[in-house]
Amino acid sequence: MKRVFGAKKDKEPPPSIQDASDRINKRGDNVDDKLKKLDAELSRYKEQIKKTRPGPAQEAIKARAMRILKQKRMYEGQRDMLYNQTFNLDQVSFAAEGLKDAQQTVSALKSANKELKGMMKTVKIQDIDNLQDEMMDLMDVSNEIQETLGRSYNVPDDIDEEELMGELDALEADMGSEADGIPSYLQPDKEEPDFDTELNLPAAPTGHTTAAQQGEDELGLPTVPRASLRS
């Protein structure tokens, strides 16, 4: 069958934007090289025109220079066209890359959304509320257990509160009687005692008397009469 109808040739994949851009840039490089050669020839013809006298020889050089100049303008037009094509390809490539980034972003969001939905199915608000209620009940039971364990075994349960109040009143009365027996210098509310009155000391003299009038010398000793000194 292949010999009769021939085998179907595989189609080559279409060129990518990058391939087309590389091809155009290569053509642009070739045009730039040709322009450099034409510029070199024009410079040589300019020097010859300056050195040649006006006449047929100079006119021939000018004609060749005009031909080179026309070629240069043609190649410059081609180079500008290639630059425009390259610019358009760059814009298309930028847009294509932006679309690829958008596709990846949308795909990532879809995957994250699917994962979140799967996680939400395993976590329910009602289950969380029930868990919180169970934790509160457990805490209450724990507090009751602690209170039960903290009871004193020596305190009887059948104590009469009225008897306890009577004992408390009696205890306060005993404390009051002990306060009456506290010495006066230890009681904070009473005034300080007058030590002069308690010791019955004589009052200090109010007049200004000399030591001689009191029968004492300057050192406070009793004076001896002069008659006794003569004898």
From TrEMBL:
Superkingdom, taxonomy of origin: Eukaryota
Gene Ontology biological process: late endosome to vacuole transport via multivesicular body sorting pathway; vesicle budding from membrane
Keywords: Coiled coil
Coiled-coil intervals, chain numbering: 99-148
Recorded GO CC terms: multivesicular body
Chain positions covered by the region annotation Disordered: 1-32, 174-231
Entry keyword Manganese: no
InterPro entries: Snf7_fam
Stretches with biased composition (Basic and acidic residues): 20-32
Similarity section: Belongs to the SNF7 family.
Protein name: Charged multivesicular body protein 5
Source species: Hibiscus trionum (Flower of an hour)
